[in-house]
Amino acid sequence: MTDPNILGLGLLYVGAVLFVNALYILDYASPRDTAILNLFTGSLTFLNAIYLAFILESTFPAAQTLLFSFTYLWLFIVFWYEWTDMRALGWYCLFVAITAIPTGIYTYTIDNLEILGIIWQTWAYLWFIFFLYMALELKIKKITAWSTMAIAIITGIYAYYTLAITGAPI
């Protein structure tokens, strides 16, 4: 099982990076500015995964977390070097989307994680949209951006709620 504080901490920044990535897709953020938050979030979630795997010995949540880490670290490189060909990343997104579906179903069956199980399905949808947009190069820029924005907000609210009910008082 995962530590709810670790979950909330990572997901708060996942929500933030999704929000900024949506702004990038809509041409409201530069690649280099967008790269920084992808590096931070990818690194934070990577460290969370290491903690989960080697301290808490929770390899399944660690593997789930690494799906995010590698996505954001890859995006950091893409944005920092201003690569325009993101087809390989798009194919990785298909793998993650396929992985996220059973992850969401399984997570839904765990006590007190039903909402997270549903959110996993939204992430599966989003990674699939990224596959269509990047790997297949479909002209779905607006649906990709607004889907990313909506799921950023959902993720951020869930993360904040998770931290608020499990975190230490201020």
TrEMBL record:
Transmembrane domains' residue ranges: 6-26, 35-56, 62-81, 88-109, 115-136, 143-161
Membrane-related topology note: Multi-pass membrane protein
Compartments where located: Cell membrane
Gene3D superfamilies, A to Z: 1.25.40.600
Signal peptide (from-to): none
One Pfam family linked to the record: AmiS_UreI
A GO CC term attached to the entry: plasma membrane
Keywords: Cell membrane, Membrane, Transmembrane, Transmembrane helix, Transport
Name this protein carries in UniProt: Acid-activated urea channel AmiS/UreI family
